[in-house]
Specification:
- By secondary structure, this protein is of the alpha/beta class.
- The protein folds into 2 domains: 195 residues, 3-Layer(aba) Sandwich (Rossmann fold), CATH 3.40.50.620; 103 residues, GMP Synthetase, Chain A, domain 3.
- Helices cover 41% and strands 18% of the residues.
- It is built from 10 helices and 12 strands.
- The strands form 3 sheets. It has a 5-stranded parallel sheet, with helices on both faces.
- It binds xanthosine-5'-monophosphate (XMP).
- Xanthosine-5'-monophosphate (XMP) binds next to loops.
- It comes from Saccharopolyspora kobensis.
Length: 326
Amino acid sequence: QWTTSSIVDDTVAAIREQIGDRRAICALSGGVDSAVAAALVQRAIGDQLTCVFVDHGLLRSGERAQVERDFVAATGVRLVTIDAVDRFLGALAGVTDPEEKRKIIGREFIRVFEQAARDLQTEAGEAGEQIDFLVQGTLYPDVVESGGGSGAANIKSHHNVGGLPDDLQFELVEPLRALFKDEVRRVGLELGLPETIVHRQPFPGPGLGIRIIGEVTADRLETLRAADAIAREELTAAGLDRDIWQCPVVLLADVRSVGVQGDGRTYGHPVVLRPVSSEDAMTADWTRLPYDVLERISTRITNEVAEVNRVTLDVTSKPPGTIEWE
Ligand code: XMP
């Protein structure tokens, strides 16, 4: 019987065997896979691991704190946060095309991580402790999907750092290669990670950048972040987190509609709620959320987020719609 604690013990032993007394780095995305992979490696080699968290400014409310405070408290991991908000917003200025946004965010992410890795490598090198390993949260389904080949060539999404340049050669450490998502979550709990990280719903690497329809600006991000936080709070309060796959909130930043509030006419932006039910994100159905929950979300968003005067519900399945709007 392969219990969760024996998975942890075996994996930790295998990581120790692979890394020995050398050093490793890991990019944290805020998601469950990189968090559990990092926590396992931390347990195996302690401070020989350094984690890097890139704040690209496209995160949801509270996500940076979740990594910097909660994840560090739970694991004792050594963490470097790179504040790259201005850099990402600069690179995204004037861009409205969804694929172009993805490319820019992916490219900047690699560059920022690469620089962080170089800086750490320089520091470590001066102390005679070169970093040899890169930790990745590759799961079993990813391994199978990519034909069982190993490593960097198979990475699909940008926040799994795949395209590192040749002069930054790392050997990969992939402690989750034999595990499915539900096992990863159990391992995470076994390692004492917070529920908010272990049961986090999927969130795209390009973050809120692909949930603002139109140009991404600091003001628009602030508006969307506020609306998203309210939707998440109310879904959690209603006990619905485990029933929905995810619920993107999308800001139609280039659309305005007329409304009325108090004595005055408003001319604000709509947001779209996109609650979906799914097994694997390949197909999805729109979730029949209770009307009273929708009502609370709508009332709170229009009352509390000044720029938003209309809340709409997306009732499209996938296909033909995708889960995200971009
Ligand atoms: P779609 O919109 O294609 O989304 O139905 C399917 C799932 O993938 C997530 N998603 C992404 N994740 N980088 C990511 O890491 C991306 O560019 C990206 N686009 C979509 C989406 O949130 C959903 O869970």
